[in-house]
Specification:
This protein has about 220 residues and is mainly beta. It has helices spanning about 5-10, 10-15, 20-25, 50-60; strands at about 35-45, 70-85, 90-105, 105-120, 120-125, 130-140, 150-160, 165, 175-185, 190-195, 200-215.
């Protein structure tokens, strides 16, 4: 992968503001390599148990899970792959597929998503089958307490059904907000994700810290 999906979709002057350590995470992963991270999420899920039956449906496709736990160890693996999207299912896009494995007290669960650079911009395809997608706007703080941090905010959420993609109206569409920053003092990458909805508020979230590096991959990811 010569350029990452982030480099293909975000203006160079925006990514130039990134903290040097974050450029490793959001940069290209060489062929035959994998990005690996390990850390702890201070919180995962939602305390609103009435949402858990809905989250259980998303859990079937490795998107979100019906939990509310603190201090959850996790690992992440990022691999360059090719995914096929579009109404024919034949449109190929270079992507970075992430597997985030949460070590819950009840057992391990893995969240899967694939980031692609498409004509509309950066798109995150959620789950094993990518039926739910979020178009993301990318910004990087130039100064202030989060200088060098990357922010992703969803501008459109869609789902695939009946052979086509359906966009959710803005008045009901959930909103994804993700922040990645590097903590020099702790030598850790910190991540925070919040899924919220109009009127209802926060539906799901996770936040924590980890260390990340790119290394040779003995079992290369498949397309």
């Amino acid at each position: 992968m010569s350029r990452s999906p982030y480099e293909r979709s975000a203006p160079p002057q925006v990514l130039a503001r990134l903290h040097p350590r974050l450029r490793i995470y959001f940069g290209p992963i060489p062929a035959g390599h994998v990005g690996r991270g390990q850390g702890v999420f201070t919180v995962v899920g939602t305390p609103r148990r009435w949402l858990w039956p809905v989250l259980a449906l998303f859990a079937r496709d490795a998107v979100m899970f019906p939990v509310w736990q603190r201090d959850v160890p996790f690992t992440v693996e990022n691999r360059p792959v090719t995914v096929r999207r579009g109404h024919t299912g034949q449109e190929a896009h270079l992507a970075v597929r992430a597997h985030r494995t949460f070590h819950f007290r009840s057992g391990d669960r893995t969240m899967v998503d694939a980031i692609t650079a498409e004509p509309a911009g950066l798109v995150d395809h959620l789950g094993r089958h990518g039926r739910v997608s979020a178009r993301l706007a990318v910004t990087v703080d130039a100064d202030g307490p989060d200088a060098g941090a990357l922010h992703l905010v969803s501008t459109r959420v869609s789902f695939r059904a009946l052979g086509r993609a359906w966009s959710l109206p803005g008045v009901i569409a959930p909103r994804v907000t993700l922040t990645e920053r590097f903590d020099d003092e702790a030598d850790l990458q910190r991540v925070s994700l919040v899924l919220s909805a109009p009127v209802v508020g926060t539906l799901y979230r996770y936040e924590g810290a980890f260390r990340y590096a790119i290394a040779p991959d003995p079992g290369r990811g498949s397309t």
